[in-house]
């Protein structure tokens, strides 16, 4: 039996302070609460687990379900930013009707809406001193990618590839002027796409040390892994590459498949 000190912390229950549409298919929900007082610094871009309540649950019922079960639906998301001055956590969601429990929650979130948050994990891009950078992401991974870009020195050079669902998803992204921002449109994200890997491979490979962030759909990640790990033999310490989802699978099925393939 685990000792009390070794048990995982109880997830925090937070409330929505406001929400805003970032682009045609991306919505930012900003949550707050006294339980954020011990949130660690330097975790922008880290994973968190969201525990999603039914709309008709009271705070007491939600807390009872979190602490004693059966637990609510859990989905993995990203800390876009933690604003300690205002005690707020930013979470960005790809939204569309019928998009799943987290997307549906974000689509209808309003001030006072409840959400459970567990985490955070560690940050993804740990190498920020390099000669050049490559950052590639679809919309599911853009929050983590944007946080990674914000950690890169202002003098950085390289390429950013963002694959989005529509022209309406292009928006202003703060990035080092020496990094070129490339937008790719893939209107049917639940069909395979090679746009990112094809464009990345078309660039001349610069001299010097590379730091690379690639995240998104599993088939895209598989192609990047073949290229970067097996063909270019990049050191693992200079590379973050991760499948955030897989066409045809819900998150629980995808996570189970990833664990089985480790």
CATH superfamily of the largest domain: Nucleotide-binding domain of ferredoxin-NADP reductase (FNR) module
H/E element order: EEEHEEEHEEHEEHEHEH
Low-pLDDT segments: 1-6
CATH architecture assignment of the largest domain: 3-Layer(aba) Sandwich
What does the main sheet amount to?
A: 7 strands, antiparallel
Strand order in the largest sheet: 4-3-7-1-2-6-5
The count of helical stretches stands at 6
Overall form: globular
Per CATH, what is the topology of the largest domain? Rossmann fold
Number of β-strand runs: 12
The chain-level mean pLDDT equals 93
What does the radius of gyration come to?
19 Å
- Distance, first to last CA: 27 Å
Percent of residues in beta strands? 25-35%
- Helix-and-strand structural type: alpha/beta
Provide the domain count. 2
């Amino acid at each position: 039996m685990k000792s009390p000190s070794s048990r995982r912390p109880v997830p925090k229950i937070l409330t929505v302070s406001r929400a805003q549409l970032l682009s045609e298919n991306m919505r930012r929900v900003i949550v707050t609460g006294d339980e954020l007082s011990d949130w660690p610094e330097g975790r922008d871009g880290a994973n968190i687990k969201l525990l999603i309540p039914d709309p008709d649950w009271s705070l007491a019922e939600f807390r009872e379900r979190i602490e004693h079960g059966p637990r609510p639906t859990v989905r993995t998301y990203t800390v876009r930013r933690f604003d300690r001055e205002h005690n707020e956590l930013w979470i960005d969601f790809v939204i569309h009707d019928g998009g799943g429990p987290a997307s549906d929650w974000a689509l209808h979130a309003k001030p006072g809406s409840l959400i459970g948050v567990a985490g955070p994990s560690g940050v993804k891009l740990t190498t920020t001193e390099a000669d050049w950078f490559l950052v590639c992401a679809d919309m599911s991974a853009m929050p983590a990618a944007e946080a990674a870009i914000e950690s890169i020195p202002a003098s950085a050079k390289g390429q950013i590839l963002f694959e989005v669902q529509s022209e309406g998803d292009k928006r202003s992204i703060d990035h080092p002027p020496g990094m070129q921002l490339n937008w790719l449109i893939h209107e049917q994200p639940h069909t395979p796409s090679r746009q990112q890997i094809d464009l990345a491979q078309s660039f001349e490979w610069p001299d010097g040390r590379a730091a690379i962030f690639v995240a998104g759909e599993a088939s895209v990640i598989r192609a990047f892994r073949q290229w970067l790990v097996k063909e270019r033999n990049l050191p693992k310490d200079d590379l973050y590459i991760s499948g955030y989802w897989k066409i045809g699978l819900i998150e629980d099925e995808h996570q189970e498949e990833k664990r089985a393939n480790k």
